[in-house]
Specification:
Layout: H1 3-15, H2 22-38, H3 50-62, E1 75-79, H4 87-93, E2 98-103, H5 106-118, E3 124-128, H6 131-134, E4 144-149, H7 155-162, E5 166-176, H8 181-193, E6 196-205, E7 212-220, H9 234-237
Parallel strand pairs: 1-2, 1-4, 2-3, 4-5
Antiparallel strand pairs: 5-7, 6-7
Helix pairs in contact: 1-3, 3-4, 7-8
């Protein structure tokens, strides 16, 4: 049914130096089918065509391999995961990753739990809550090797949400569009204040497309001061 689209997907994965099994391709198909079915009754994505989902969600999520070696079984938190991007595609391709999906909407968490069960994924959990709450001491603060986010938010705001989750020596990687330079300049202060250091900005075009993307790699150099993140809603209203 999806033969031609899967050939393109395979070609795109080869460009990323990724090889997967037939069973993993089937997991992606099942994920897509659950996504479009649930999307009829709840707002998960504006992108529903199979080709577009492959390119703009699956391949984009997996482009993380350009800046991070995912072959090691590291712990990952996906903040503001939405419909499961990038966390679920990463888990399908790299099953040894230990992944936590965090989202503030209970309906989306229900959807993600259904996907996890249907795909029979292990070592992955979906939790409901705000980023500011789970980053508090005694919760999930500074317990992850890697934090990723494709959430549509300013980098200063995202850094306050995400860096508190990262262990010292770990990384926070933000998926961004092509218009990132001004955002990066504005975020330098907040990144430093939160214990981070910008180590790489990788600009590229998604395989067999004209879609410009950026991966912003921030290393956690020292513990995040205990007053961050601030209470819910503050970061977006008053960026650092």
């Amino acid at each position: 049914m999806y033969t031609e689209q899967l050939k393109t997907f395979q070609k795109d994965l080869e460009e990323l130096h990724i090889t997967i099994s037939d069973a993993q391709y089937q997991q992606f198909i099942t994920y897509y089918e659950i996504l479009v079915e649930k999307n009829k009754v709840m707002n998960l994505t504006a992108i529903t065509d199979f080709d577009d989902v492959i390119k703009k969600h699956f391949v984009d999520s997996l482009s993380l391999v350009k800046v991070f070696d995912l072959k090691n079984p590291v712990s990952v938190i996906d903040v503001g995961t939405g419909a499961g991007f990038p966390g679920i595609p990463l888990k399908i391709v790299f099953p040894d990753l230990k992944i936590t999906l965090l989202d503030s909407l209970q309906k989306r968490i229900g959807f993600l739990q259904e996907v996890i069960a249907e795909l029979e994924l292990v070592g992955i959990e979906a939790i409901h809550g705000r980023a500011e709450d789970f980053a508090k001491p005694g919760q999930l603060r500074e317990t992850f090797d890697l934090c990723v986010s494709r959430a549509v938010a300013n980098l200063s705001v995202l850094s306050e949400y995400c860096l508190p989750y990262v262990k010292v020596g770990g990384k926070f990687i933000s998926y961004k569009s092509d218009k990132v330079n001004m955002e990066l300049e504005q975020a330098k202060h907040s990144i430093s204040l939160l214990g981070g250091k910008l180590i790489e900005q990788k600009s590229f075009i998604l395989p067999s497309s004209d879609i410009d993307r950026n991966l912003v790699v921030i290393e956690k150099c020292c513990p995040t001061p205990k007053q961050y993140p601030r209470k819910a809603g503050t970061a977006s209203k008053k960026p650092l």
